[in-house]
Amino acid sequence: MKLYTLRQTTVVCPQCELVFATPIAKMPKLTRNSAVETDLHRVLPDAAIRASLIAMCPECVYAWWLSGFTPHFILPEMVADSPPIDNAKKFGHAVLSGRKSGAHSLDRAIIALNGYWCAREDFQPAQKWLELSARELYEALSDDSWHGNRGRYQFIMGEILRLMGEFHDAVRFYNLVDRRSVLPKELIDHQIVQAKNGDSTPTLIPPHIVEAIFLPKPQVIPTAESMAVGA
Ligand SMILES: [Zn+2]
């Protein structure tokens, strides 16, 4: 049985309302033994799987996360296909669509990073994708108006810079990551050492750290009621 599968699905373009067919992937659940790299992405076996996360309209070329397109009941065989395009290039179109539609730089940065991972999964040069990701993520981190796990993105910024060979700046960003990032200190310390050693190679995370970041044990969160009983 194949763990990863692709099939066609039908969606509506949110910009021009064209109904078209685009691939959709089914992926196995992440486990502690899944291949995950230190920039916190899961390694996929085929660039087409990652590219299916983006849908691109064949009429107006608007491209964005597939999840942002409304599903349609018509069979995919009955409607136009999404344009044939290199897997990684879809992410470039999505960054451009994001700029046109006023999407936040953090959203664009995550799309650019997926372009980088997709290019690598397609054995293509990835340097310009790293540069694009760095620009978009730097802009996002310079904006104080969003709250979310900034530490996690500071860490990813450190990773992008390390992968680019900008080791000094990488360490500067790793050092900004605090406990609120909920990232294991062991991982942050390891990446600081790797950057200080001038190592720009992509690196897999050991299973116990994959588990700590992505599969944390469920915690008992006190509800308003349980708090009131103790008061
Ligand atoms: Zn369209």
Descriptive account of the structure:
- The chain has 231 residues and is α+β, with helices and mostly antiparallel strands.
- The chain contains nine helices and six strands.
- The chain has helices spanning 47-51, 87-100, 105-121, 127-141, 150-164, 167-174, 185-196, 207-214, 224-230; strands spanning 5-12, 19-26, 54-56, 63-65, 70-71, 80-81.
- The strands form two sheets. A four-stranded mixed beta sheet has the order 5-1-2-6. It has a two-stranded antiparallel sheet with strand order 3-4.
- Strand 3 and strand 4 form a beta hairpin.
- Helix 2 (87-100) packs antiparallel against helix 3 (105-121), helix 3 packs antiparallel against helix 4 and helix 5 runs antiparallel to helix 6.
- 35% of the residues are buried.
- The structure holds zinc ion.
- The site of zinc ion has 8 residues, from loops.
- Zinc ion (ZN) binds at residues 13, 15-16, 18, 57, 59-60, 62.
Q: What distinguishing features does this structure have?
A:
231 residues; alpha+beta; four-stranded mixed beta sheet; 11% strand; globular; binds zinc ion
